[in-house]
Design brief:
Structural class: mainly alpha
Number of domains: 1
Strand content: under 5%
CATH topology: Farnesyl Diphosphate Synthase
Oligomer: single chain
Order of helices and strands: HHHHEEHHHHHHHHHHH
CATH superfamily: Farnesyl Diphosphate Synthase
Length: 296
């Protein structure tokens, strides 16, 4: 996996530069808001979603310059979601990526506005830059992205998550929640990356979407496992917080060993989904392995 590590580091470095270039300068007004946006977007994170976009783009021979733009848009939405998730009215957390959360480093109002502004910046990127040669396909990309962010995607999943605290829910209900909360933006990353390149047949897009569903769900299952097994220093965020808040997780509903087996099953399904793409899907396969085997 050394080759994958080199590639992932390169993607992370490219994204750091791209994100920094697209963000407003901290020296322009309103300075505090722009500083909060940069604080929450730069200098941390695994950049899994950009890696997924780049890996999907390899399948369709997409232009790397276009992949950087869609990856930045997805990463800005991800950063905004983390800012809002950490607010006192949501998960009330004080640590993110090993640093104080945005509302702790700045203040609640600035954090709220920083999240709002990052989301707006993401949609400015996908609507003003040429990401594909077809205006119709670019419109489809924007539609995929908006759905992933809204009440039928990430925001809806967070609402269900908040409503599930101290309640008993079923495994299908838990899966639906995370398909929206975590999985929707991961699916959008794969979709947008692939659509930056050559057109795929409908069944090929279905294969990619199946892959994205599997790795999106696996990401959350592994998150739940790490929340039990790892520590705050390693995770860069407060460990054991879901258990303390009495939130339903895959570990609390299935048990630790079954949750690990489920993650392995999802990994197998993800590999099977992209088998027909041959060597062009190697990065997608390596990413699936990384998501399931990661330790933080």
């Amino acid at each position: 996996m050394s080759d994958f590590q080199d590639w992932s580091r390169q993607v992370a470095m490219d994204m750091e530069r791209t994100l920094s270039d697209l963000l407003p300068s901290p020296n322009t007004q309103p300075q505090r808001l722009h500083a909060a946006m940069r604080y929450s977007s730069l200098g941390g994170g695994k950049r899994v979603r950009p890696m997924l976009a780049f890996a999907a783009g390899l399948v369709t021979d997409a232009d790397p310059a276009r992949l950087k733009l869609v990856s930045a848009a997805v990463e800005f939405v991800h950063a905004y979601s983390l800012i809002h998730d950490d607010l006192p009215c949501m998960d009330n957390d004080i640590l993110r990526r090993g640093r104080p959360t945005c509302h702790i480093e700045f203040d609640e109002a600035t954090a709220l506005l920083a999240g709002d502004a990052l989301q707006a910046l993401a949609f400015e990127i996908v609507s003003t830059h040429k990401l594909t040669d077809s205006a119709e396909i670019q419109l489809q990309m924007i539609q995929h992205f908006t759905k992933a962010c809204g009440s039928h995607g990430m925001a809806g999943g967070q609402a269900i998550d908040l409503a599930s605290v101290n309640k008993t829910i079923t495994l299908p209900e838990l899966e639906y929640m995370h398909i929206l909360k975590t999985g929707a933006l991961i699916r959008a990353s794969v979709q947008l990356g692939a659509l930056c390149g050559r057109a795929l047949q409908a069944n090929e897009m279905q294969h990619l979407d199946r892959y994205a569903k599997c790795v999106g769900l696996a990401f959350q299952v592994v998150d739940d496992i790490l929340d039990c097994e790892s520590n705050t220093e390693k995770l860069g965020k407060t460990s054991g917080k879901d258990q303390d808040a009495n939130k339903p997780t895959y570990v609390s509903l299935m048990g630790l060993a079954p949750a690990k087996r489920f993650a392995d099953e999802l990994l197998t399904d993800a590999h099977a989904a992209v088998e027909s793409f041959g060597e062009k899907a190697n990065r997608l396969r390596q990413l699936a392995e990384f998501i399931v085997r990661r330790e933080s």
